[in-house]
User: Fold this.
Amino acid sequence: MARIVYPICCGVDVHKEFFIATIIKTNGLLEPKYLQKRFSTFNNSILSFKKWLIENGCFDVCMESTGKYWVPVYNLLEDSIRVVVASPKWVAAVKGNKDDKKDAKWIGELFRLGLVRSSFIPEHPIRILREYTRYRSKLVSCRSSEKNRFQNSFTVCNVALDSVVSDMFGVSASAITDYLINNDVFDSEHVKSLLKRGLKIKSDLVVESIQGHYIHPAQKIRMKLVRNHLEYVDKEIDKLDSVLDALIKPYEQFLSLLCTIPGVDRKSAITIISEIGVDMGQFGNSKRLCSWAGLSPGNNRSAGKNKSVRITRAGVYLKPALVQVAHAAVKSKDVPYYKHKYDRIYKRRGKKRAIIAIARMILTAIFNILVSNEAWNPSDLFKVDMPIEIRERHKQKAINAAIKLLVSQGLIQSSELLRTG
Assistant:
């Protein structure tokens, strides 16, 4: 007989305009008792649902994470009722035999037997912080798209400036693009006067990359629109950063600890905290956290054969941030700890898998830092980042030990060592 984990629980099937709730009462009965109701997703109806749960002594609720529709229900229940938000893959019903009422009952049945894994839902301040960091990542992506669009608009007009300058949005390049957009006549001497510092040496090459170009008036209008939008996005990102600085103040001590990890700067630390929070008790151990972030290899074995072990698509926002941190960590010259580990792994597994491995190591370090409230100090740091003198000393000690073993086994004679000495 199956073990009943929750004698009284509720399964909820949430939709945009309504949700179906099914309370399941076991309480020693051979057959469970079912109570089912339909509620609107308006606040007064959700509060009626909450009152209905409390009247029936139900304080454990499970619902499927359907888009963002579960959030209003969760917001009004979380203060007094334990709500488990489950991934659709854990509560999916059999196709061809399902409707809203059956789905709610099925979710409740699975939850009653303890067969539903709870999704990680951080506390309310972290959820607000997460909204800002995710919106910021969208704006940064939009800014990159606008930069590419602005650069490509000059390429199609036979301006090869991006082949000469390293940054199309630097001081010199910006002055030149402004000049090309706002003037119909090309003056090579004036372009040379706009160049700063190292680009003055390449003045002839810069002029050569622009000469012979033609920009239609309509194309100039589009370039101005793109540039204006780019400036607007930059201002919005600055505003977001100022709000983020205010929201992150309660977590400054955790930020400073995370910034001790090579490759982690303040912005990436804010993103990491907004995604996983600071209470690691919700994950239990670092392996579950890495699996939740989509950095653990899959376990897909059948009939004695290993199938695809690719990482999952989880961690849509956290994983790219950690990969970016990993790239910075393996390039760090001040602390080459992760660089040595990366060099060892990529020779066997390739560069992409090596970066994912480093990202997982960093996330494991983050977990331990947030648990212990101590700065980054891995136990094998001395072995990996060992000074050359000490490394040579250890190497010589290992050689002497090997020689002593060979002599004791009679494989070589001490007299031979003196001759080769």
